[in-house]
């Protein structure tokens, strides 16, 4: 067995992959958020449609998209493996648990948080990615050039209050997931230091609030605009 196989099959290797894929997905969230914030521009979706078209025809973005799906899959698989391993390592609960005093609620429930986020992601991909790639798309014309009207698909989805509520709740779960995952990833990579760890934790906490809140703001604002 090669050192790569040994590393990937070890608990430490799995945690390392979890950390690396998690940090990649955190970076993806930032890029995705920057693009999605264009939905709120007062130009009836033109900026967002042009952005979506440029992303769809950029070879580099296509490669990154494939990598992103692969990293999501790896992150989910290894989270399941690690959760099962941790459970098997302690099949019988302690008579008196001090977990609530030694860890945060989010760190003890990462599996539940991740499951809800995965369900949201599948619904989200079905409603947007699948429809844009394989569904019948409305078209729009800008200066004589025809583009897919992705904005119209998003606006229609966010005019449904149930979907908006579902989206906002999912972003709440994402916030809790990030509140532990951000700093945990740096710790797993060995980037923890008595001098820098408090800063990493503060940045992670701020990230876990700001990014999900901005994501949630988009469907809320678009729903209000649809009334």
In short:
This is Succinate dehydrogenase cytochrome b subunit. The chain crosses the membrane at residues 16-40, 60-81, 110-130, 150-178, 199-224. This protein is mainly alpha-helical and 227 residues long.
Give structural notes:
The chain crosses the membrane at residues 16-40, 60-81, 110-130, 150-178, 199-224. Keywords: Membrane, Transmembrane, Transmembrane helix. It comes from Aquiflexum gelatinilyticum. The protein is mostly helical and 227 residues long. It has a single domain (3-90, 107-226), classed as Up-down Bundle (3 helical TM bundles of succinate and fumarate reductases). Helix content is 77%, strand content 4%. The chain is built from 10 helices and 2 strands. It has helices at 3-9, 11-36, 46-56, 59-89, 99-102, 105-108, 110-134, 150-157, 161-188, 197-226; strands at 139-142, 145-148. A two-stranded antiparallel ribbon has the order 1-2. A hairpin with a 2-residue loop joins strand 1 (139-142) and strand 2. Helix 7 packs across helix 9 and helix 9 (161-188) packs antiparallel against helix 10. It is globular, with a radius of gyration of 20 Å. The protein starts with a helix and ends with a helix.
